[in-house]
Design brief:
7-stranded mixed beta sheet, AcylCoA_DH/ox_N_sf (chains A, B), Butyryl-Coa Dehydrogenase, subunit A, domain 1, about 55% helix, 18 helices, alpha+beta, homodimer, 3 domains, Acyl-CoA_Oxase/DH_mid-dom_sf (chains A, B), Acyl-CoA_dh-like_C_dom (chains A, B), about 600 residues, two-stranded antiparallel sheet, Butyryl-CoA Dehydrogenase, subunit A, domain 3
Chain lengths: ~600, ~600
């Protein structure tokens, strides 16, 4: 059974040494609430909760799964108690508005904790996880009455939330939704339709569930401009705000899935359910994007959490498992064979996991600072800059960390050899759970279109320039640092190439819009590798400085430098392939007609 | 539920048009047995069996799994009947020696059929699949008496076989095995020990199971030079050769696995079981390699089969599923949205599957000709050449087609969006089933060491040169073919680079043996991409010729050329990353000490 330790030392490195969180928190007016001591204590306590409460339920939850009985969903053994524990501990509202029951700590702290939850029990973590998005949407778009009724309960975790978007015939293309909302004449609406893939749509952890539902008003314009957002509680709140009458929303069935078995993925039937409009009519998609952007970063954190969990366990196995001798001669001559960590290819897999998990953590905590600034930044220009940069990084965080998260969990499984395929070891569960992260909240393909089409090209490259300028400045500042040459030179080269590549795609796209789609996923992966190279170069700088100042923990900083070198030498070269594929353009993708794809087997 | 059609047209292209199987069969003296008509009829009938008998049991078998009850394994519903059907049809001995009940058709034909079985039901296919290796080992190394007793039964499929190698503490490192064989004084041995991961170790499909078991004699030398091979039947044959007394070998438990649920993966306990020595004492590993080489190519075919199955179903979905409009404007304006096959990134995923499945088929059937020649070639020099080339290609077939098979099945799942994660669609089963192929019969890492260390470097590059010379000749012959320029030029360049890269690694390895392991997996993948480029270039040549001669089916040949172009433009550039990573060497892999890997989380 897998073990897990919260990576507290590494978080300290990223937050304190690399990204100077103490100053950051001071700048956004959270220096007192989120002092280094408090942050340290919260992370430590969160790590303990993850390890002691959630981790023991991960394998058993996967095995048991959820069960639908008489319309009610029974979550696996222990899940309800763990959730109660979580609510008692005050975790749900950690980074929520104090006006609505939250503790007002910065969002970034919640994201660091979220990584731990995802590492220890992704399926469990999705129950409270979905509430955040729902709370955010109500916080930003709900009426005062809606906030009073629903928000505090969500923040305190007494109730949980969902996002009801997808329908059987449409996921990406929400303009096609068929769920209808009819005014009931008393200010509310009757919601009717079927939603699928509703995570935590029904469960036994909380006394009420607050569904945020996309539906169409009778007079709605066609397509995505005719979508409105509604809040539809499972139980309609009574006069005291407690769960009252059962609403017309029920779980029709549970999906049988490849992974996250312990999370209830529900078909939700809305049958004249009472709902209340959130925000303006026909502006639902914009409101929903509030939730989706939060959720997308959250899914990137899931990828990170699973990488870390897989890495820790494959490392333990690689140290323990004896098999074959090192090619250059025995390393453990007293044992029947050497531990497999001596073999270069096992090290390649371990270092891939390590470099991606630690680099992913830098990326998440870098983005987390931007989230903090958008929420609490005192300066409007600074807030705007953070928002723009965050909009650029969101699809990268989501898609890059989940694509690479899948790879890294697979490397972890591979290190176990045939044992990796056996459920008891827990390594294959990380792979199965990681697989969904490439799909939900917008597939990698959708994220890539968002990045290249909406974020980069629609802004004429300005959004990207904001980031490449920051990288450029960093490279210039370190240009004479001989110790960092192996990082700064390739980074500066790639940073320049990123701009050129973007320009080249933009020019082609003016002739043919399909060139955007043809380049998009390679472009996203390329962008992810360069972004991580920037962060690894910064980590290398911090580590080199720490070693020079000889403050102790030299092994830790040397390991960072070694991992940075591995990243630059053995992962970053993947950009070469992506560049060539992007430059090849879309012609070879578009040539074949849909009919001719199957000529090898269709009779 | 997935559908499947045997790719008969594509097989005809590969076998008849590209690799000239009719002449090949004539040359190895099988022209009459394996005439084009007979081959066509067998493939068609095999495709029907796969589709009508095996395919309907694939999802249900995955869902039901195997059950161990009172020491007996119950396979999923329908498996036993399907196996009886298979035996009645005379399929098991298709390419076996007629002296032992086989039909004497070439091995290549069996491999083409094997692809279909793997596409339709991998877990089922493993039951008869394991018998081939066991039969081969007995055929080559067994005594006349052993052949008389076991071989015909295996060939006819009345009994099935296993390979019992792995033990709890060792898989790759078979020198560590603990299973003991003690002479019983009457010419037989008492076998005692525990074997794990024994596919088809126990089941209800056949009346007897013939285990081929690695064990150590009392006086055996240490390590891999002290391993002997034994045949250990589940039931000891009586005087008439029918199953008699129950032998001391039992199934202790079944593994719970990520995939291939319908195949029984057994812990086998040997408790003073009666066994008979196969071949010479202490030469068991060499005998076992007979089985393993066959099995390794067989696993590559599994990767191929799963790619094809996934591709066919994702293609159907991509044509059917309506979502979003094409970036360049509506393609199906009469429908609410366009079928997703209009989107370039969906096409990229489909073409990746198509190019890898069709290219993989070329590789398998190319290797299959070599297998035929090693078995039936009339000329000793030709046989030796085929053996050498096959030894080079075996790890590529195994590891490249399974690594890429996993990728391709994941692409298929990705095309389904969130639905891909739902079991009912069957796409995630292809992924789970494909995952084991990267692990068993030697992980990708082990195949890579075999390729680079044993096959390439140990022969001073001579083995590789045999193949690159063939590619070089092809490139020279087509150097003036303007139509093929886009294929021949990059292929010739890569072919030259392959040799240089090998030389560079060889030089480094002379200084430090660890450089072999550091380069190995990147080298294997690089080799796979170049090998497939060679075969795709040959396919392009055949297709261009067919189009020029205007014999009809122009859509088929144009599709081949389009797919070849896609392969060269959008997959082959991956070699760029691998070259850079190989050239970077192993320093960044070896720097970190085993202790320092975990400093981010270990307290």
């Amino acid at each position: 059974m897998p073990d897990y330790q919260a990576p507290l030392r590494d978080l300290r490195f990223v937050m304190d040494e690399m990204l100077d969180y103490p100053s950051h928190y001071a700048r956004i007016g959270k220096g007192d609430d989120a002092s280094p001591d408090i942050v340290g204590a919260i992370l430590e306590e969160g790590g303990r909760f993850a390890r002691e409460v959630l981790l023991p339920l991960n394998r058993s939850g996967d095995h048991e799964g959820c069960h639908l009985e008489g319309g009610e969903v029974r979550t696996p053994k222990g899940f309800k108690q763990a959730y109660a524990h979580y609510v008692e501990g005050g975790w749900p509202g950690l980074s929520s508005d104090p006006d609505h029951g939250g503790q007002g700590l910065p969002a970034s702290l919640g994201m660091a904790l979220s990584e731990m939850i995802c590492s220890s029990n992704l399926a469990w973590g999705m129950y409270p996880g979905l509430s955040h998005g729902a709370a955010d949407a109500l916080h930003q778009h709900g009426s005062d009455e809606q906030k009073a009724t629903y928000l505090t309960k969500l923040v305190e975790g007494i109730w949980t939330g969902t996002m009801c978007l997808t329908e059987p015939h449409c996921g990406t293309d929400l303009g096609l939704i068929k769920t209808r909302a009819t005014p009931d004449g008393e200010g509310a609406y009757r919601i009717t339709g079927t939603k699928i893939f509703i995570s935590a749509g029904e469960h036994d952890l909380a006394e009420n569930i607050v569904h945020l539902v996309l539906a169409k008003l009778p007079d709605a314009p066609e397509g995505s401009k005719g979508i409105s957002l509604f809040v539809v509680p499972k139980f309609l709140p009574d006069a005291e705000g407690n769960p009252g009458e059962r609403n017309g929303v029920t779980c029709g069935s549970l999906e049988h899935k490849m992974g996250i078995h312990a999370n209830a993925t529900c078909v939700m039937n809305f049958d004249e359910a009472t709902g209340f409009l959130v925000g303006a009519p026909n502006k639902g998609l914009a409101c929903m994007f509030t939730m989706m952007n939060v959720a997308r970063i959250g899914v990137g954190v899931q990828g990170l959490g699973l990488m870390e969990a897989s890495f820790q366990n494959s490392l333990a196995y690689a140290r323990d498992r004896l098999q074959m001798r090192a090619l250059s001669g025995p390393r453990a001559p007293d044992k029947p064979a050497d531990p497999i960590i001596v073999h270069p290819d096992v090290r390649r897999m371990l270092l891939t996991q390590k470099a991606l998990a630690e680099g992913g953590r830098m990326l998440v905590m870098y983005a987390a600072q931007l989230v903090d600034i958008t929420e609490h930044g005192s300066d409007a220009a600074e807030r705007e800059r953070a928002e723009t940069l965050l909009s650029l990084l969101t699809p990268i965080v989501k898609a890059f960390l989940t694509e690479l998260g899948f790879e890294a969990t697979n490397e972890g499984m591979q290190i176990f050899g045939g044992h990796g395929f056996v459920q008891e070891w827990g390594m294959e569960q990380f792979v199965r759970d990681a697989r969904i992260t490439r799909l939900y909240e917008g597939t990698t393909g959708i994220q890539a279109l968002d990045l290249l089409g909406r974020k980069v090209l629609m802004s004429q490259g300005e959004t990207l320039k904001m980031f490449t300028k920051e990288i450029h400045k960093f490279c210039q500042a370190e240009a004479d640092n001989a110790e960092l040459k192996a990082f700064i030179e390739p980074l500066a080269r790639l940073n320049g190439e990123w701009g050129e590549l973007t320009m080249a795609i933009g020019m082609k796209a003016m002739q043919d819009r399909e060139e955007v789609g043809a380049a998009s996923v390679d472009y996203l992966l390329y962008s992810g590798y360069v972004t991580l190279a920037y962060l690894w170069a910064r980590a290398a700088r911090v580590s080199a400085q720490a070693l020079a100042s000889n403050d102790g923990e030299s092994a830790f900083y040397r390991a960072k430098l070694d991992t940075a070198r591995f990243y630059f030498q053995r992962l970053l070269p993947r950009t070469r392939g992506h560049v060539e594929m992007i430059r090849a353009g879309g012609a070879s993708l578009m040539a074949l007609s849909a009919e001719d794809f199957g000529l090898g087997f269709e009779i």
